[in-house]
Amino acid sequence: MTAHEPKSRFFKANVKAALADANIQHAMRSTGPNFVGKRAKARDAMPEFDALRDRARDVKNHVLANLPLYLERYEAKVRDAGGHVHWCETPDQANRKVLEICRRVNAKKVNKGKTMVSEETGLNDFLSENGITPVETDLGEYIIQLRGETPSHIIAPAVHVTVPEIDKLFRDTHTHLPRDRDLTELSSMLAEARTILRQKYFEAEVGVTGANMLIAETGQSVIVTNEGNGDLSQSLPRVHIVLATLEKIVPTLDDAATVLRVLARSATGQEMSVYTTFSSGPRRAEDPDGPEEYHVILLDNGRSNMVGSEFEEMLRCIRCGACMNHCPVYQAVGGHAYGWVYPGPMGAVLTPSLIGVEEGGQLPNASTFCGRCEEVCPMRIPLPRMMRSWRAKEFEKRLTPTAARYGLGVWAFFAARPGLYRAATRAAMAVLGRLGRAKGGFAALPLAGGWTAHRDFPAPEGGTFMAQWAAKRGGR
Amino acid sequence: MSGREAILQRLRRHGAGDPAAVDAWAAAGPVGPRPRQGALDGPARIEHFIEKAKVADATVSRIAGVEALPAAMAAELRARNLPATLRTGSDPMLRALDWGSLDRSEGVGRVEEPATLSRAEFGLAETGTLALASGPDNPVTLTFLGETHFVALRTEDVKAGFEDFWAAWRERGLTPRTLNMVTGPSRSADIGQTLQLGAHGPVALHIFLID
């Protein structure tokens, strides 16, 4: 099985493995609080932040309501600037188009800026199988490519990798350097990767980047980065290929500004990322640098079926990662447990939408429904509502495990009969209360092993909520 | 049926869109909320630009006129222990200056570039951001391959925020292959989730603000 094949259906096993993995647990402990604090600080520093979120939501809603028109207008602008747009329905079509372009210009090496869409298509494996070497140039992506892994976070792909692991990885990989060199300082590791990748920028014939936005007004693609690798990857090779999906369209430069104002603040807590680059077409006739060809691969991969569905609002997503940074489940298990490209709450909604509820149906169950994801989403996407929709669909399709279905059935029987429900809970609580009175709690309890493995289950005291409520109202 | 037609047809099942609404949207201009930090004027605007650029780890110096640029440049190179060499494009403003003993060469960025100098079209006070237009005057590779990237910017080109920046950008009729918005030197937190400057692009960014 290659790294790109979905493993979401093994979610439970993935989670168990992640919880038992000391490296993942160590790496995740410092991640969450870091991102959460930075975003909160950025939000607090900008009084208009929530108004901008409303506007950003409205921009995307307007785009989605008029998407066919905007795509045609965007395409015309790309052509005017001398670029090409290739419409692809499936990941396979997108990969083949990239390969076709590479073959035509006789490319042996392809440099990549960060693109999650290429993870959707499994572009790296596909190019390798066809004799072309893909080189990830984002530092985090470079690290995980060397490890034969996929990203575990959409903006911090190597967030699960610890410093000692990178130390060993670099010594094992960069074998032209003395094995006993000093890498104690983090800066020495960064400098080493920088030197090695700097050379590689000049060797690739084709550069592939993603796109944070596609602007209908101008036909530009936009990338937002901090490292500068996406820019070197698109400026030095002969050909620049942009991998983007349909919903990346924004109408105007002013709308792009609205998105930019919420994007970096939500992602890393920066007011602006270091590099925001607007690219259109190939180099101009008089230009001394820049690519000679510019191609946009416009991938659908199931999105056109989301338009008009109960999951349409997911297409507003700008991939900031705030939902996973604030998700207690993601923070406990990391991104790989989700088993496909997109982790966290946005992944729990997108995965079943894009590759099917049979593969991804377990992910929406991995939620405490605390609601933080929706609270912090810059595009105000109702993630919990959509996760509930997927749960219902999973149940309807009879994909829920038998024990859970049986349990839900029993619960539903009682829940639909309030009198019986109250009587049953009253009786059960009374029994539990009496049994646990001596110790005040239970170290083990049938059907509650998941709870009691980590902490005691407190013995119920006094009447049930409903009983107390009735007593209070009666006493008034 | 081509992929293009199939995709468009699937989308049109839920409505083909309203051309009048799309035209009206474009004609409406910047109607979104305008942050206060992107609406400053006068000296406050320039101070805010400098403050925000510094927050993003850039350094800034103000010089009295463009003629003072070569001397200021030479002083910066000395202070940073960099050789007295400089790579630029063919920007007329930079070309017209007397660079004295500074070894200035024109062209694209090469694999090792200790110091590059570009001229930015605009600055954004809102976030301390520079806006550079690629082309022969300011090749895009100079922005990313310079170990230290120096940028000259006229104070009069510092705009308050995105709204007046886009208006000025359109008015100047610029249509470069890339518009590069740069906020501080390059960075990465991919190793140990610790922010470090100088990932693939410049390790340092210095702005000469020309009055």
From TrEMBL, chain A:
Molecular-function annotations in GO: 4 iron, 4 sulfur cluster binding; metal ion binding
A Pfam family this chain is assigned to: Fer4_8
Alphabetical UniProt keywords: 4Fe-4S, Electron transport, Iron, Iron-sulfur, Metal-binding, Repeat, Transport
The 4Fe-4S ferredoxin-type domain, residue ranges: 307-338
Biological process (GO), any one: lactate metabolic process
Listed InterPro entries: 4Fe4S_Fe-S-bd (IPR017896), 4Fe4S_Fe_S_CS (IPR017900), FTHF_cligase-like_sf (IPR024185), Helical_ferredxn (IPR009051), LUD_dom (IPR003741), LutB/LldF (IPR004452), LutB_C (IPR024569), NagB/RpiA_transferase-like (IPR037171)
Source organism, top-level taxon: Bacteria
PANTHER family per UniProt: LACTATE UTILIZATION PROTEIN B
Protein name: L-lactate dehydrogenase complex protein LldF
Organism: Rubrimonas cliftonensis
Taxonomic classification: Bacteria, Pseudomonadati, Pseudomonadota, Alphaproteobacteria, Rhodobacterales
From TrEMBL, chain B:
PANTHER family to which the protein is assigned, alphabetical: LACTATE UTILIZATION PROTEIN C
Top-rank taxon: Bacteria
Stretches assigned to the LUD domain: 117-210
Organism: Rubrimonas cliftonensis
InterPro entries with a match to the protein in the record: FTHF_cligase-like_sf, LUD_dom, NagB/RpiA_transferase-like
Stated name of the protein: L-lactate dehydrogenase complex protein LldG
